[in-house]
Write a structure and sequence with these properties.
Elements: E1 4-10, E2 14-20, E3 26-33, E4 45-46, H1 48-65, E5 73-80, E6 85-89, E7 99-100, H2 108-116, H3 119-127, H4 136-146, H5 150-155, E8 159-163, H6 164-171
Parallel strand pairs: 1-5
Antiparallel strand pairs: 1-2, 2-3, 4-7, 6-8
Length: 172
């Protein structure tokens, strides 16, 4: 049988898988929503394990609907929800906190402090970006500063940090 390509779109509100044949035609698809967690006003989180479970589910369901199995896959492409970030244990793959979503504004104070210290222009010059809570750098700082033991564990190389696509690839 001809191999197919799976496209996994892990988005802000749901995860979907679309299967394509070699002609680029859609042969199957599946989508599943996930919870939005709002621990405080302006904060947005997702459960990384729910995202992983949904990712596996939509891939398996799309394959099943097309009467295919994983051996029929030639490859998997992943798109993900922007700067949403996950911090997990290298040895076990277990997340140590919920994913901090790209929309989350909890690191605004960190960004304001960086700008007040004069880092804004240097940051823009080096990266082409502005200092903003949207980006993952201040999210990892927040996690290391607020999750007990995280900074020390990271220094020992026990933790991994990445966007959702990195998390899914690590777990698959």
């Amino acid at each position: 049988m001809t191999k197919i390509i799976a496209a996994l779109d892990q988005g802000t509100t749901s995860t979907r898988c679309i299967l394509f044949n070699q002609a680029g035609e859609i042969i199957s698809h599946c989508q599943k929503e996930h919870r939005q967690i709002y621990p405080q006003p302006g904060w947005v989180e997702h459960d990384p394990l729910e995202i992983l479970d949904n990712s596996i589910y939509v891939i398996q369901e799309a394959l099943q609907k097309a009467n295919l199995g994983s051996a029929d896959l030639a490859g998997l492409g992943i798109t993900n929800q922007r700067e949403t970030t996950v911090l997990w244990e290298r040895a076990t793959g277990k997340p140590i906190y919920n994913a901090i979503v790209w929309q989350c504004r909890r690191t605004t104070t960190i960004c304001e402090q960086l700008t007040a210290e004069g880092c804004g222009e240097d940051f823009r010059r080096r990266t082409g970006l502005v200092v903003d809570a949207y980006f993952s750098g201040t999210k990892v700082k927040w996690l290391l500063d607020h999750i007990p033991g995280a900074r020390e564990r990271a220094a020992r190389g026990e933790l991994c940090f990445g966007t959702v696509d990195s998390w899914i690839l690590f777990k698959l």
